[in-house]
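Fructose-1,6-bisphosphatase class 3, pasting as requested.
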Amino acid sequence: MSQKLVYAKGSCIMDLYSELTAKYQTVPAIATEIINLEAILNLPKPTEAFMSDIHGEYNAFQHVLRNGSGNVKSKIRSCFRDEMTETTLQRFAFLVYYPSERLAAIHQELQGDDLQQWYLTTFRRLIRLLAFTATKYTRSKVRKAMAPEFVYITEELLYNDADTPDKLAYYWQIIRNLIVLEQADEWIEATCRTIQRLTVDHFHIVGDIYDRGPAPDQVVESLIKRDQRHSVDIQWGNHDILWIGGAAGSALCIANLVRISARYNNLSILEDVYGINLRHLARLAEQYYQDNPAFSPKMGRSDRPITEAERLQITQIHQAIAMIQFKLEGPAIKRRPEFEMDHRLLLDKLAADFSTIQLNGHTYPITNGCFATVDPADPYRLLPEEQEVIDSLVESFTHSEKLHRHMDFLMDRGSMYLRYNRNLLLHGCVPVDEDGNFIGLTIEGTTYTGRQLFDMLEANLRLAYSQPTEKADLATDLLWYLWTGPNSPLFGKHDMTTFERYFIKDPATHAEGRNAYYHLRKDPDFIKKILREFVLDPEVGHVINGHTPVKKGTDPIMANNKMIVIDGGFSKPYQKTTGIGGYTLLDNSYGMQLVTHQPFTTKADAIANLTDIISTRRVVETEARRRTVAETDIGTALQAEVEVLKRRLAELRNGD
Ligand SMILES: O=P(O)(O)OC[C@H]1O[C@](O)(COP(=O)(O)O)[C@@H](O)[C@@H]1O
Ligand SMILES: [Mn+2]
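Structure tokens follow.
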């Protein structure tokens, strides 16, 4: 895709010319390709879905992937209009979402003739639904979405009309044979997956796959599977950066993510999934830390409650790694004055007996302090055993094969922002001052703001990732800045008050202060300014953000529909704030809709009770007429190909 966009800008037009002339050498071959491409340009624009802030909630995420962000059910509704009762529709929808689980239940419920009848009805319905979802695509694209072993049979069923008397017997014979040859369940499963795939063509993940929830690794695995035809992109979130930073050897990113994993009782992701050895850390934790209410893990993993001994051990680990994090912050802040983070130097503001801290002219009492490893004379110095722990963690992170496979995917499909089909996608914000002027970072005499800030940070992130052995260079330190720096586009707040939240009661010290972007983004003129900065058409573009959970009663659609925030709370701990289970934004040929999902309980519950989490849909924008492929980025690239082919055709006709 990105290669095609380069063509669209015309910079590689000669490459395109040589590529296409080599591929299509005769007049009929060129003419056929022109006909094919121009036909594609007239097809309706495929559906894009946008999600963000999944935060490891794999089951809820999977449900949304399977139900095509609510789109599967609306397709069924349109396709079968008045033919199905609500219960039949619901059952059929769940078969499409969870075919293997529903088939197992059907085998329990039905036998003999009832089962045969169920197969015959279901086959017919699935074929009709597949045909309905496939109308937007070329035959070749539909074929690629099918399981290879069933392509022949499925195409026969799909493109032959069973209502034609001549074909009727042929059609039913295929179906009967699938049943007799015991391939019926396999075909149903494969076809349901094809329907899922065709319902949403492209997924945008607007950041924060990682942290808090139980299975971010499985989210990444399913995105890798889904991406076979480059149909996924990711705009990195601040939490994703911690994990990319971990693989890139940043001790600060590692300390932060291990701390969050302990806080949310997710250490098993590190040990069991990514093979990170936590033995040294556990030993240090046991030696220096006791029970401490401020560090008790927030919630248990849903699969099993934790024992008291486990809770105590996690609480100790949580303190040990938090303290390593605070100690590592000191030298980083000091070696990077350009980050302007001196106000985050906190350990040196503690009284010698650790009972109080001096902040901004106030003295605050310390509660739940755990400073046994801190030397008041040199508070940022790591004890040799702490140094050993962090070194061994860095070693484990930089050598975890699975982590690298997942982070390679995040690097490959991810970026700091994306311009896609006239919209700008980014996780956090574009940092600005109160007057809306772009602000950023000054590095080695150059000030980076707006789009340049994003590009500079991305270039450094890629550099740091390619050099995991460099551990305290600017590029690696910038990874940490992306997580917590005051002008980081992914953080968007002035301070990350982790220390204050653990140790100071006064809530005034917990405020993090959002960048002015977050109130200015309600203004359409401000959004237009942002779109212009990123070289997008301010009149037709939208900005799509994640990162800030949309509070109950607050509108996620702002600035005359130009600004849409889609963090609706897939993350369970944030559902109290949002009151819902998450949003997905859909952009199809008719316009944009926001889908609201209700909180997802468990997969077993959803399947047993056929509870779907989709609720309302709200039209963000309706196109005056259906948009076609021609009006998309891919369409622009295809048009460039058509022009080149037409030129070549004229040359051949002139005897060149
Ligand atoms: O909810 P927790 O675990 O206390 O984390 C709070 C921290 O997470 C942050 O909100 C960042 O995470 P998000 O990107 O999910 O908002 C910080 O601003 C804040 O300090
Ligand atoms: Mn975020």
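Note for the archive: The mean pLDDT is 92.
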